[in-house]
Amino acid sequence: MGPLLYLRLIGYTLGTLIELFWMVVILGYRRQRNFERVLFFLCLAFFLFYGGSLLALNSQIYYPKPPAGLQAFAIVVISVGLCLSPALLLHLHLEYAQTRGLLQVKAWKRAILALFYLAGLHLALHRIPLLLQEGTFDFIGPGNSLGTGFAIVLSISLAWCAGWERRFATTVPDKPQSYFHWALLFFFALAFLATGVLHIAPYPIPKQAIAMLETAFSLLPIVPFTVLIDLVYRRNFLQIGRQKNLLYAVSATFLALLYLSLVRRVGIWLEPLLPPEASASILLFVLVIFIEPLQRMLGRSLRETAQLEMDRVQKLMAEIQQEARQGNLWELVSFIERRTREQLELREVWLDLPDAKKTRLADTKSEEPRAALAFDPREFPILRNGKNEGFLHVESHGAIISGDTRAALEFLCEQLPGALDLCRLIEEKVRLERELAERERLALVGQMAASISHNLKNPLGSMKTILQVQLENPELPDSIRGETKMILEEIGRLSNKLNQLLQFSRPAVRTGDKVASCGAAAVTEEVVSVLSREAERRGLKLKAETCNAGAPVAITAEALNDIVSNLVVNALEATPRGGHVSVTAAQEQENLCLLVEDDGQGIPPALGEKILRPFFTTKSQGTGLGLAIVARRAAEFGGKVDWESPVKDGHGTRFKVTLPLEEVKK
């Protein structure tokens, strides 16, 4: 056996085991993405090539004349692997480009791939029967046996892949990945040149040199697959590096297989001197010497990995504590989900807390499907003194959460209660400060309203009376009569705004400990009756439904009148001519629900948080107190105000006021 034969034997064995390693990793990873599926089949194609070549080489070593069936099987396996490899190489690059968002036009992707797969299928169906019939096959340079057609398809695929690698190298987020893609570019360029020299336009090279070049060319794919292992482990390339449990287990298994293969080879070589059992026993016993160094090395590596994860969690907790000081629980929950997903490189994270229920938006969810047959625990409890306060739900990219990541998540859940408490305390403090400031401002508004009432209400009333008397004078000129009517309308408008200001600043009147009570149906019908003329003047249809609102409501008639009238007036002003406004009062369980709905333009989402604030208005002549009065009156009697906009077809607004019934209040 010459050195070239030994090189091929070791290279084919290593190539077979590396491809098998990646197939096992991908199967254990179980990420439901086309890129991993194509990578699996590419590894399978190279596994068939290396496995078939290793089988043929061993048959040549052990048999003076290899069995025909064994040779035929090796020819079929090698040919199938080689015929599929060009299409799979290109398919893998297109899938990776699509995951990176670099594939803009996807329509031509299917056509190109169909062309390459059909070419590979044609080569396999056409060449394999001929090779079996002839019984000759060049196992050193199998590309020669497959013909020039295979070499042309392979060279086109290699050139195209080199172009994609150049594009990947210039768009990756970090330098290690950039170096990897530049190295792959060099690899594909070298393979392209080797294909041309060996199979398309062969140069007059000595036979021994050709054998060396063919051997080097056949072992060339081992290099990128080996480098990929290091990149995945150290840089978490393709998010597989987070599956350290899987990588450790598969690596240990294949190292054991390699060593057992070495034991068998050495036993065969030393068979003239020692029985194979004796040499195998010696080599297995030698492993005892390396147990302690391996234990120290693995222990140090595991400690460094665990420390790295703890450092990440400590950094994450510092960011969470800083965010908690903002005093907004919903924003803190969103921040925890986003930063935990980014820091621990998970596919999806969401936090489930009883007092922070929120709807998860569709665009915050990952579009990537969950890994198949995931069996790891996916939720981590947040405990305080043995009491469960919520759960942290996680989804990894693969089917397994590594042990260090699981430990980091458990440590994070132990630290989260403190940050959540800090956020709640600050949120409560901010709320109390806002309430105090609001009360002080309302007190000032009340004083201002009383002063305005004293200084303006009586003069306005006198002016209105004088002008009305003048209008009754038949001798008043028409020009002055029109101007007088206009002044009366302006005085009426000023009086309404003054009444609204007084209405907002005046607290609800309660007599002793007596519970306030009124009939919602009567008050609603009264308000609708009064405002029906205004609706007719605006060309609107105003209707009321009070079929199931007979039970007394725990609110004064005056306060309920304020609520209904302000909501209806707002609805009338927001609805265009020809529109509809409906008022519905109905009993729901232990509450009365008052619904006021219009079919106007609706409320812009950007203004949703401001519409209930005092003095905020979008009207040119509004005071911004209508909805503030509604919210305040409802809160004074234990009710609440909700709203929805748009209601249907991008239009309309619906306000819902929930008030307790008198029996419940008692």
Features:
666 residues, 65% helix, 5-stranded mixed sheet, 3-stranded antiparallel sheet, 18 helices, Beta-Lactamase, alpha+beta, Rhopdopsin 7-helix transmembrane proteins
Task: Give the SSE layout.
Elements: H1 3-29, H2 34-62, H3 68-99, H4 107-134, H5 142-146, H6 148-169, H7 175-200, H8 207-219, H9 222-235, H10 244-269, H11 276-324, H12 329-343, E1 348-352, E2 379-384, E3 387-395, H13 403-471, H14 478-505, H15 520-537, E4 541-548, H16 557-574, E5 580-588, E6 591-598, H17 626-636, E7 640-644, E8 653-660, H18 662-665
Parallel strand pairs: 4-5
Antiparallel strand pairs: 1-3, 2-3, 5-6, 6-8, 7-8
Q: What would you note in describing this structure?
A:
By secondary structure, the chain is of the alpha+beta class. The chain has three domains: 3-241, Rhopdopsin 7-helix transmembrane proteins (Up-down Bundle); 309-429, Beta-Lactamase (2-Layer Sandwich); 512-665, Histidine kinase-like ATPase, C-terminal domain (Heat Shock Protein 90), CATH 3.30.565.10. The chain is 65% helix and 9% strand. It is built from 18 helices and eight strands. The protein has helices at 3-29, 34-62, 68-99, 107-134, 142-146, 148-169, 175-200, 207-219, 222-235, 244-269, 276-324, 329-343, 403-471, 478-505, 520-537, 557-574, 626-636, 662-665, and strands at 348-352, 379-384, 387-395, 541-548, 580-588, 591-598, 640-644, 653-660. Strands 4-5-6-8-7 form a five-stranded mixed sheet. It has a three-stranded antiparallel sheet with strand order 1-3-2, with helices on one face. A hairpin with a 2-residue loop joins strand 2 (379-384) and strand 3 (387-395). Helix 2 packs antiparallel against helix 3 and helix 13 (403-471) runs antiparallel to helix 14 (478-505). It is elongated and about 135 Å long. The termini are far apart. 29% of the residues are buried.
